Amino acid sequence: MPRIPRPVTTRDVAARAGVSQPTVSLVLNGNTQARVSEATRERVLQAAADLGYTPNVLARGLVRRRSYALGLIVPDLRNPFFTEVVSGAERVAAEEGYAVLLCEAREVAAGRHLETLRSRQIDGVIVDAIAARELGDALGGVNVVLVDEPSDRWASVSSDAAAAGRLAAEHLLGLGHRRLAFVGPAYDVHAFRQRERGFVQALRAAGVTLDSAGLQRAAPTAAGGEAAMRALLARRPRPTAVFCASDLLALGALKACAAARLRVPADVSVMGCEDIEMARLVTPELSTIAVPARELGARAARLLVRLLEAEETLAPGGRRLLPVRLVARGSTGPAPATDA
Amino acid sequence: MPRIPRPVTTRDVAARAGVSQPTVSLVLNGNTQARVSEATRERVLQAAADLGYTPNVLARGLVRRRSYALGLIVPDLRNPFFTEVVSGAERVAAEEGYAVLLCEAREVAAGRHLETLRSRQIDGVIVDAIAARELGDALGGVNVVLVDEPSDRWASVSSDAAAAGRLAAEHLLGLGHRRLAFVGPAYDVHAFRQRERGFVQALRAAGVTLDSAGLQRAAPTAAGGEAAMRALLARRPRPTAVFCASDLLALGALKACAAARLRVPADVSVMGCEDIEMARLVTPELSTIAVPARELGARAARLLVRLLEAEETLAPGGRRLLPVRLVARGSTGPAPATDA
DNA sequence: TTGTAAGCGTTATCAG
DNA sequence: CTGATAACGCTTACAA
């Protein structure tokens, strides 16, 4: 591995082109178009190419007071939903010339991450709902876009979580189910609350009620979903259909069904929410409500960048909600004719 | 959202503490211990606390010629294996005071990413095997640690891929299988080649051979695995066990079996490699070879940081290979007694 | 023990 | 049109 040489600077380029250093800067930024003669322009560009000049974005950032870097705080990369958000945000950021500083608030606290992001002069930060909750007021003094967590203090990008719940309810009701249950994560974040509310309200509108035992809270993992489903399956009469507020929970629920030797969907229907890739990899394939995770990330980044460039301060709250849609697959079917 | 105020600098702190600006720097870095009196030290720290001083890492980087940032280039975040690598690397980096600039080389080319990383003066970069292949010589002039791609030019951290193949072979042979097949991604990267070689060699040692039709190449996705498995299932006699070089491929293979109404493992055994979380979420659970992805990422980051701090240049090639281990679950079973 | 001076690689504001 | 000159916020000699 070769020792790293001192990088070439605008000064080096200037020397080779026989111009002053600031002139190089002018040419290379090309911002004020015709301010430099074609001849020197050529010479500078040639010199830069010869030397293999690479601009030092950090130095630029120091004087411009902009780092052209975005922070991205997510609670847990193991959840494919967040991964998609990250992917979407990263793509847009890269296209717009921003770097993404990734922070996973799993083993290192979100607050500490925010601190290091601050010290790196990030221009703004994209924060997931769960991390946002943990951070609270600590977000002051940064440009923030929240994902799936509307707020009256900060800008945000959200999906139509209530519609997700409603669509799930309508799908299951349409299949003739009347004994329903819900499994949600034990997190108090907006998207999950809304998925639950949308579901419950749509049921109520159809004259179906959920008692408290039909509303299970679980750890936001497959294992959590499995445990919650086990509890539901122990009930008599057992529910004929279950809506899980996330696909990970639903996948766990499917496992619980398999363990209990119940056929899906013949004995129980199971629905998820999010439509992560994994939903199509299980058998039967998981019926779910598609939430545009990657698009959420992309929009969050776009919103942040756009307002950063406009030098506006970000207006808090509610842009348009991104639509969700029903994806009916194999894990839901008609309610069983006979009772359990 | 409040307008962002000008951040407080060492100069501000100095003014408030009634000392010179460099003194503040000395105190706050605490590098040369006793060079500053306890009294002023106190005053400075107090002033910094009062003002809520946050150091500007970028400015520090400019003079130290170090950005304390690492680049991380992965081919595709949708693959949970890479996500784990990212997670591990990010954790270690954060603990060591380094930021991670995440780059996904899916829609933006790896080369472009490397260019922007360069312009941000990253101290080093962690590159996955697939991205490394795409980059090739472009990696010159940066400190590099490759993941799962041994190289005589750059440092690397790898798992014992040959052992993975061997363990898979031994497991399946031990279950009595003699008609075996292999599905690998159509990538020419070291880890996958080795998984294949280890597998084939262990079979050969047991007197079992694979003809070319028993060696399928596929896109490195679940869909690819599904297609490859379909092809294998069309053969007569059909293989009784299939080893897929990645779990994603294996999950696709399971789908193909389900579609063909074959029972796993009664009719066919399927094995994966990597042990991503999803492997436990399908029914039957996927037998696989566990590869410590998170540990790979963590070690890559640790290696990079350690050598960066030692200001050594990174020695190329082979550190110890991280061990892999067999995880026998439900998707593999005894070879069927009757032939297909 | 502390302050002064210089410089990291840029950009921005001026005169020439 | 171009070249000095002064920042940006910090670290690191060196001088006081």
Low-confidence stretches of chain A: none
Rg of Cα set of chain A: 26 Å
Order of SSEs of chain A: HHHHEHEHEHEEHEHEHEHEEHEE
Structural class of chain A: alpha/beta
| Number of alpha- plus pi-helical segments of chain A | 12
Description:
With 340 residues, the first copy, chain A, is of the alpha/beta class. Chain A is 42% helix and 16% strand. Chain A has twelve helices and twelve strands. In chain A, the strands form two sheets. Chain A has a six-stranded parallel β-sheet, with helices on both faces. In chain A, helix 5 (80-95) packs parallel to helix 12 and helix 8 (161-174) runs parallel beside helix 9. At the A-B interface, helix 4, helix 5, strand 2, helix 6 and helix 11 of A face helix 4, helix 5, strand 2, helix 6 and helix 11 of B. Chain A binds a DNA duplex (16 and 16 nucleotides) through residues 7, 9-11, 19-23, 25-26, 29, 34-37, 40, 55-65.
List keywords for this structure.
homodimer, 340 residues, alpha/beta, six-stranded parallel β-sheet, six-stranded mixed β-sheet, 12 helices, DNA-binding
Q: What does this entry show, briefly?
A:
By secondary structure, chain A is an alpha/beta fold.
Note the topology.
Two copies of one chain form a homodimer.
Chain A: H1 10-17, H2 21-29, H3 38-51, H4 57-64, E1 69-74, H5 80-95, E2 99-104, H6 110-119, E3 124-128, H7 129-135, E4 144-147, E5 155-157, H8 161-174, E6 180-185, H9 190-205, E7 215-218, H10 222-233, E8 241-244, H11 247-259, E9 269-274, E10 287-290, H12 293-309, E11 317-318, E12 325-327
Parallel strand pairs in A: 1-2, 1-3, 3-4, 4-5, 5-11, 6-7, 6-8, 8-9, 9-10
Antiparallel strand pairs in A: 10-12
The first copy, chain A, binds a DNA duplex (16 and 16 nucleotides) through helix 2 and helix 4.
